[in-house]
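Key result, reporting period 2: structure in, sequence out.
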């Protein structure tokens, strides 16, 4: 049986963990995604249909703006994704694996196809007040889709229950040792890696982290991974690597990571033992919740200099994780 992975293109974290899983599967999957995520998947040699164009978050000074308006625009985006998924699935059979792509999940269930969901969220909370009543209706729909899945893979630690299977963090494997990667990347000094994901929402963090770096009294290099959506001017203050397909290896080679609070980046730091500072977008419930589990909050962006000085020498031992292997084994059992 063939496998199609529908990977949410909102950020790059879904694509990175799906690539990690795909490398462990007994058969090569096809992908459906969009924009930067589709480019990343293609760089790994997988066949990918660039079908989705997600709506952008409106972020000002690091705070999510107009959350209810974004939620409504997301619903319109969801309907477009449903149409794209229907076109694809009406012509292609096999197992559907949806990484937080609920549109493909809905169509797969309508067509009575076997389907697996990969997610670390089971409910959203972007809004409040009367707007949250609308969001709750959307959450109820999400819960029905989740309950009807053959299996739900959760990239976290926990106890299995019903159709929910906890596999632990899902991360990509590095191609070489930390020492060799540092030589390859020319990391000759203490290296601070600043990464802001696949959207333009991290501009505020680049500005604040660069400002804090200039004040540090240590001999360190600042390396920025600006991603597919931001274009940075040349500067003597940093080395910009732009959009890369091996962020996990840069994380392993670095001495400190400063990042938005994306789940995959946090998990890759934990797996590699590289200390990190994770700044969530304010009012973005998923990032705020993820950052809190590691002791960070949005306001930490205003004390980056102190945090960077404290954490740059606090490397941890790598953590043994096999979420990708476990997830691939679960998926394979449905073939």
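The corresponding designed sequence is given below.
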């Amino acid at each position: 049986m063939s496998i199609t992975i529908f990977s949410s293109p909102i950020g790059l974290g879904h694509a990175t963990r799906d690539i990690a899983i795909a490398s462990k599967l007994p058969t090569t999957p096809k992908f459906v995604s969009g924009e930067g995520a589709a480019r990343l998947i293609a760089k790994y040699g997988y066949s990918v249909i660039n079908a989705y164009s997600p709506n952008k978050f409106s972020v000002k000074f690091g705070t999510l703006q107009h959350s209810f308006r974004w939620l409504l625009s997301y619903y319109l985006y969801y309907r477009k994704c449903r149409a794209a998924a229907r076109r694809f699935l009406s012509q292609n059979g096999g197992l559907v694996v949806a990484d937080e792509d609920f549109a493909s999940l809905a169509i797969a269930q309508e067509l009575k196809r076997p389907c697996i969901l990969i997610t670390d969220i089971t409910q959203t909370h972007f809004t409040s007040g009367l707007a949250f009543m609308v969001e709750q209706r959307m959450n109820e729909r999400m819960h029905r889709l989740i309950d009807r899945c053959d299996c739900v893979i959760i990239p976290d630690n926990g106890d299995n229950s019903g159709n929910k299977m906890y596999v632990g963090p899902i991360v990509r494997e590095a191609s070489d040792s930390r020492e060799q990667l540092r030589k390859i990347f020319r990391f000759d000094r203490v290296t601070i890696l600043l990464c802001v994901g696949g959207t333009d929402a991290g501009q505020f963090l680049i500005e604040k982290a660069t400002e804090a770096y200039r004040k540090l009294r240590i001999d360190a290099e600042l390396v920025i991974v600006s991603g597919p959506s931001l274009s940075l001017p040349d500067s003597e203050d940093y080395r910009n690597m732009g959009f890369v397909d091996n962020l996990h290896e840069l994380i392993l080679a670095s001495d400190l990571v400063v990042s938005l609070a994306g789940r995959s980046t946090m998990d890759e730091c934990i797996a590699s033992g590289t200390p990190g500072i994770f700044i969530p977008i304010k009012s973005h419930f998923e990032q705020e919740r993820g950052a809190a589990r590691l002791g960070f909050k949005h306001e930490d962006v205003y004390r980056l200099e102190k945090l960077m000085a404290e954490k740059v020498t606090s490397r941890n031992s790598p953590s043994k994780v096999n979420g990708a292997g476990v997830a691939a084994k679960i998926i394979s059992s449905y073939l």
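The chain has two domains: 3-169+323-332, 178-311. The domain at 178-311 is CATH 3.40.50.2000 (Rossmann fold). This case is discussed further under Risks and Mitigation.
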